[in-house]
Amino acid sequence: MAARIIDGKIIAADLRARVADEVARVKREHGLTPGLAVVLVGHDPASEVYVRTKAKQTEAAGMASFEHKLPAETSLSDLLSVIARLNADPAVHGILVQLPLPKGLDSQKVIDAIDPAKDVDGLNPVNAGRLATGLPALTPCTPLGCIILAKTVHASLEGMNAVIIGRSNLVGRPLVQLLLNENATVTISHSRTRDLPKVCKQADLLLAAVGKPEMVKADWIKPGATVIDVGINRIASTDGKGKLVGDVDYQGALSVAGAITPVPGGVGQMTVACLLVNTLRAACAIKGIAAPGV
Ligand code: NAD
């Protein structure tokens, strides 16, 4: 039987609609308009597209969007001054610095400078540490999206064998903590893992965040497993335009997996929706009102 397709487009649209409802409520009841500032340094075309999408969806949810576009030659001290201004700005509840930064700018110093209360990307060590110790934290958006997608298939992830491929701060590491919070049994694998296919085959829930086109083959997947494909890779296509594929051989996996996210139209859709969730949560926490019901 062919795998069930986990439709990130529909699930993300539903989440954005729920965020918009909650934004309308906090505006009405508390006079609070959540605000997200996005900082883009340089002219990376993919980053420009992401930033435009984020601004559009932020406004569509009823929140304020502030864009700061800085030239590629911006110095670290000038960038840190922008962050300091945003940290102090009461209309801004979320700050996102679009990565990667141009060569020569130390992204860790920039991430460290963001007020943890406004760190909607969840990359500041304070939030990463809070997440790792089981405290409430702003959590990276892509892993949050992965959990929401997995839970559309399984009401509970408790006791499931979850295998993550990739150990980045952006995806793999926070996924470990989020899956532990769901009471899954978690294995994290990476470029030095021995016999990766065998490790993957143990997974009831397989999450691939590697950045290698179609690396995970059908015979790595346990029959009936749920597969969440985080990878976004551009490869050559016959029409010369190139096409996007994930880290999983999607066509092969369809006949083995129980459920699978497509690329595009899977995890990528959830990342921006979860950014809106984080901005709303940050705004409520800063204002001292109850966490929103999303
Ligand atoms: P990264 O390069 O920071 O990390 C990749 C990880 O994969 C590393 O931990 C590395 O150990 C592991 N790895 C590399 N080669 C491997 C191999 N042969 N076998 C096993 N593990 C291997 O990447 P990232 O930022 O975590 O992103 C991973 C992928 O997810 C990329 O394709 C990226 O474009 C995509 N991504 C998508 C979204 C989204 O919104 N859908 C968000 C973030 C990242």
What order do the helices and strands follow? EHEHEHEHHHEHEHEEEEHEH
> Which CATH class of the largest domain?
Alpha Beta
> Can you list the strand order of the major beta sheet?
1-11-8-7-5-6
CATH superfamily of the largest domain: NAD(P)-binding Rossmann-like Domain
What multimeric state do the chains show? single chain
First CA to last CA: what distance?
Answer: 34 Å
CATH architecture designation of the largest domain = 3-Layer(aba) Sandwich
Low-confidence stretches: none
Main structural class: alpha/beta
Strand content: 15-25%
The chain-level mean pLDDT equals 97
**Tally of discrete structural domains:** 2
What small molecules accompany the polymer chains? nicotinamide-adenine-dinucleotide
Please summarize the sheet with the most strands.
6 strands, parallel
Account of the protein in words:
This protein folds into 2 domains: 31-115, Rossmann fold (3-Layer(aba) Sandwich); 141-269, NAD(P)-binding Rossmann-like Domain (Rossmann fold), CATH 3.40.50.720. The mean pLDDT is 97. 41% of the residues lie in helices and 16% in strands. The strands form 3 sheets. It has a 6-stranded parallel sheet. It has 294 residues and is of the alpha/beta class. It is built from 10 helices and 11 strands. The structure holds nicotinamide-adenine-dinucleotide.
Per-chain topology:
Elements: E1 4-5, H1 8-30, E2 35-41, H2 45-60, E3 64-70, H3 76-88, E4 94-97, H4 107-113, H5 125-132, H6 141-153, E5 161-165, H7 172-181, E6 185-189, H8 196-201, E7 205-208, E8 226-229, E9 233-235, E10 243-245, H9 250-254, E11 259-260, H10 267-287
Parallel strand pairs: 1-11, 2-3, 2-4, 5-6, 5-7, 7-8, 8-11
Antiparallel strand pairs: 9-10
